[in-house]
Amino acid sequence: MYRRSALVVLGLLLALLAASCGEKLFYQYSSEKVVKTFQSNGLEASNSRPATEADYGGAPMVAKDAMYFSIPSLGADEGGLVMAFESEENLAKAKTYFDEKAKSQETFVRVFVRDNILVVLSGKLSEAESNQYEGVLAKLKYIRG
Questions:
Q1: 3-state helix, strand, coil in the chain (%, to 5)
Q2: Helix (H, G, I), strand (E, B) or coil at 115
Q3: pTM (two decimals)
Q4: How many domains does the chain have?
């Protein structure tokens, strides 16, 4: 009787463990990994550094981590911001802010998302160039961090 109860408990524990291993965490990629991937694919992503409050430009600072990088061919103060989020809710908050900014004639930006990553690029970047960054992000392989 005891042995049967122990096997049932063990079976339940194994089932719970298997179920939790199958869950995909929302946080998959770090902002640093994304910037390094841009660089290794020949895209301009120079002088990368952790993003500051000024880099967010008024956006909600709800990312787990964020990196700013420059795109020298566009000018001294032009670049991109890569943000990594721990929750879909926080990503949605930031995306809403930047989507509104993208519509603005005053501060046009290009915005795209992949999983937990939000990328914001200078609006001075052509659509074709922006698509190159988005394409590299789309091919990013899941490797924690």
A1: 45, 20, 35
A2: coil
A3: 0.80
A4: 1
